[in-house]
Amino acid sequence: MKLHVNGTELFFDVAGSELDVAADFRQKPTMIILHGGPGFDHTYLRPWLDPMRGFVRLIYIDQRGCGRSQRHSHEYYQLGIMADDIVLFCKALDIERPIVLGQSFGGFVALSIAHRHPDFPAGIILFDTSPAWTGGYDLDTLEQLVGGERGKELREIAYRAATQVHSGADFDSHMARLFAGIDKILADKTQQ
Q1: Residue 7 · residue 65 · CB < 8 Å
Q2: Fewer CB within 10 Å: N-end or C-end of the chain?
Q3: pLDDT tens string 37-55
Q4: Mean pLDDT, the chain, as a whole number?
Q5: Which residue, among 101, 85, 83, 109, has the nearest Cα to 30 in the 3D structure?
Q6: How many Å apart are CA 126 and CA 21, to the nearest integer?
Q7: What is the pLDDT of residue 10?
């Protein structure tokens, strides 16, 4: 399914019902699932998380520019905007106080939600993520994978992100440019 919010169209999928039939139709908590990336989609998380659908309603969201969600130019791939996407998505569907689970890059978005909208989530679950960006790119492989001038540019962005102290805006800007480059690579590879 798709929902238009915050100037983008987000793809989402739901596992589990909102009401617990075994418990007099009480409302189950809702868990918003934010995948890693950049450039991934939610599907790799389904085998591990779907079994929880008996206890919570799971809503998997392909974040802006990922999976089946709408693509944008790189300046729209910022953690703050992506966090706002999730909050507005939930408001549009009348989802109050969800639990937000963020894996890897999704954890960055979940932390941004907690920072920007502290009263929004009932809880935050982070796994395989970090409270701060520490790089982690194999710069040689990144440059070779992309190739040419774009590869050199992405290598420089990744190097600066991993070795310098940045403000949140700097981090968002660097990640947006890196995200746009990786997203293009993945799109090109799917067309081959």
Answers
A1: no
A2: C
A3: 877 899 999 999 999 988 8
A4: 80
A5: 101
A6: 29
A7: 96
Identify the pLDDT of residue 19.
72
Q: Tens digits of per-residue pLDDT, 125-164?
A: 998 887 655 555 566 665 665 566 766 776 676 666 666 5
Q: What stretches of the chain show up as alpha helix (H) in DSSP?
A: 46-49, 79-92, 105-116, 139-146, 148-163, 168-191
Q: How far apart are CA 171 and CA 162, in angstroms?
A: 10
Q: Which of 14, 13, 30, 35 is nearest to 128 (CA)?
A: 35
Which residue did the predictor score with more confidence, 48 or 188? 48
Q: How far apart are CA 28 and CA 36, in angstroms?
A: 25
Q: Give the closest residue to 76 by CA, choosing from 187, 185, 172, 188.
A: 172
Helix-helix angle 148-163:168-191, to 10 degrees: 150
The amino acid that residue 182 corresponds to is: I
Q: Give how far Cα 69 sits from Cα of 41, 63, 82, Å.
A: 9, 7, 12
Q: Is residue 10 classed as helix, strand or coil in its secondary structure?
A: strand
Single-letter code of the amino acid located at 93: L
Amino acid at residue number 76: Y
Rounded to whole angstroms, how far apart are CA atoms 20 and 171?
Answer: 42
Judge contact between 143 and 153, C-beta under 8 A: no
